[in-house]
Every structure is written in structure tokens, then in C-alpha cells.
Request: fold
Amino acid sequence: MLKNRRIHLQRFFEEYSLAAVLFTDLRNIRYLCGFSGSEGALLVSPERSWFLCDSRYTAQASEEVHDAEIRECGAVRIDTIAELAREYHLDRVGFEAAHTTVSAFRRMSEKLPGIELVELGTSLDEIRIRKDRDEVEQLTLVAALASRSLTAVLGSIRPGVREADIALELELEMRRRGADGTAFDFIVASGVRGAMPHGRASDKIIQAGELVTIDFGALKDGYHSDETVTVACGEPGTRAREIHAIVRTAHDMAIDAARSGISCKDLDEVARAYIRGKGFGDYFGHGLGHGLGLEIHEMPTLSPRSVAVLEEGMVVTIEPGIYIPGFGGVRIEDTVVVTGNGCHVLTSADKQLLVL
Ligand code: ZN
Ligand code: ZN
Reply:
């Protein structure tokens, strides 16, 4: 299965006449060979592949790494890469420019004389843009785990509770249910703090009548989930109800429109046009969504500037919002997998305005 993923590299070998591609980004390495540790490199040629790590990781690599020869390196990994390049005549090697520091690049150029290093920008990350069956299964699992965890802790949202305590309880619940950790620092933003799209859980005490936006996700076996609900802690006002209804409709319309073949820009516009029509266009400042998988933010991006087109197997978030300074905000987010004729929603917490 993992070997099949290397098919995505074929076009890079051809387009850039490469003898090999060197990966150092751990997400790409995990995707291509299964290694989940925190340091290593993967060198892939059309015929064979080598996984390079130091002695701390050889045991883990021998358990996890598929379809690559494991080479233990000494203190300087690049020396082992130079040896392999000489032995197998790898004279033109592509590398992940987007994940390489200037100093690492200088070191590579110095240690690999006579080898042409070819910068491959973020295009290399595109190998992960469409998820295969195994990945969709993992993403489905982690999304369900997180949604159920949120549902289980909704009861503890009440006036007098700190935002940070909601975040903590949610994290504990996820871990109890088998999560390896959180996908990101949860956003729990109540009352006027709801106007901050990225208002991380603070010491603020939740008051009666406030809206509370909770943006949360779990991490399991390298895969992330991402979902947002906005609930009311006691009876909200008319304006809060109105804004929630607008965001919810925009969210539902975008989910209905998501399918293979629609451009990410057009999908963004479905939700944006509706919010604009209701007079809140200036208060929806971010893009409609983003891809996710081994990273919490991956390609494609759904925004007015997107150039990508949705394809079957892409997993993206749909997350419109309205944020009004001095008042508060609403965001509603689901994660969907794009299918041939629509999309399938992976996240399942209730998106109605729950009054707790
Ligand atoms: Zn989110
Ligand atoms: Zn998101």
C-alpha cells in the first residue's frame, strides 16, 4: 500500500529528470514509508528507496518502515547520503525546498559536490492532497473520536466555568477514548472573545447568555481531526440567534455544493455570497476551509484566492464564520471527504444552536 504512494513521485522524476528525491519532512516520510519517529530521512529513486536514521531509531524503523532499505547513519547523516549518491550514481536529486532551512541547504551543497540539487517547492506536498482508502479510514476514526468526546463534555459548559477548563476536560475525554493527543490548542472563545477567530481557551469565566465557540480536534496515528461548534450558555439574544442561523445556512450550502470538479474558489464563494447577502460580508475574514490529514492545515486551501479544484478523495474543512468586534462571533466547522457526486461528512457533533 505505502509503496503505491510512491507512484505520485513519478511525475517529479520525469518532469525534473531526477535520479532521486530526498525527503526530510516527517509527514512526507510517514506517508511514504510509515516511519513515525521524530528524525530521519528518506531517499527515493525510481528503483529503490533508503530510509536513513541514527541508532536511536533503528529498532523503531525496522518495525515500521516499509519498502525501503534501512541505513544507520553516524553523527552526520549527509555523509551517508553522499555515499549512497556515489554508489548508485544519483547525480540529480530533488529536495523539499519548503521544508529545508538555508543552513541545511548550504550543508547539503557542501557535502554533496558534483550532485545537482533540485529545489522542489511546496508541490512535493501535493503528493498527499488526495487521501487513499487507508487514510480516509484513519481520518474517519479520529473525527468520530473527537465528535463523541465533545458531545460527552457539553454538559460541563455552564455559567461560572473557565474556558480553559472546558478545553482541559475535552482533551482528557479524547485521551480516555484513545487519542494520542490534541490536533492543536483548542479554541474556546466565549462572549466578546468569540470575535477572535483564533481565541485560544483562556481564564475567562463563561457568563449566562453568552455564545461559546469551541474549535477542537484529536490526533491519532498521525492523523488530525478538525471541527467547530458554537453553543449558547443559557438563552442567547436575538442577534446571536440570527448570526448563528446565517453561519449555519452558509455552512450547509457549502457542504451541499462540495463535490469533485468544483473549484475551491467557487465553493468558498457559495458560503461567502450568502453571508455577504445578509450584510455580514465584512465580518467573514478568513477562507472557507483547508485540507487536513497528517498535518492540520494541508492543501488544498478553500479561499477567494484558491486555484485548486476539488477532487475525489480530498479531505477538507468547511468552516464559515462571522466575527463582530465588541459583540462576539460564530463559527461552524465540519470535515468532509469529497466523493464523485458530493461529499461525506466525517465530523458529527450537533451543529444546531444548542442552548445549554
Ligand atoms: Zn478548526
Ligand atoms: Zn479548520
